Amino acid sequence: MSDDCIFCKIVAGDIPANVVRETDATLAFLDVNPLAPGHTLVVPKDHYERLGDMPSDVATEVFHEVYELVPRVESVVDADATTVGINDGEAAGQEVPHVHAHIVPRFEGDGGGPIHAVAGERPDLSDDDLTDLAAEISATHRE
Ligand code: 5GP
Ligand code: ZN
Q: Which helix (DSSP H) or strand (DSSP E) does residue 62 occupy?
């Protein structure tokens, strides 16, 4: 637990949240400032700042909870679709430094965009650049 982390405090029960699901390693609760009705956050109970900081089994459980929740939330709020996203790091917009997956219900004509709308200007990469990048990523190990 990180002392000044708001999500650690929610996990510990020190501040209230609208909890929707709990497993040994995860907690899911409604976002206090929702982008849509049913906007849910799934967090690991232990404090990890970045996606890659989680052990593999915890990462698996977090994603499993996303898998379990998306159809449930969609059905409760009668959504047409869902955007699932993780702001992984400050430069990507992460404000709470405790891993959390957003489940954002989406509705026809809700005025929102696809996940493609989150990045800035698109890079100009050739086919060779893409081939080189794929090879480099494929040969790299996690730190
Ligand atoms: P981030 O920008 O870090 O990906 O998203 C943080 C999310 O946490 C925001 O959507 C924000 O509304 C939500 N949030 C921040 N503080 C609290 C809180 O105390 N309780 C709950 N339930 N959600 C919070
Ligand atoms: Zn935390």
A: helix 56-77
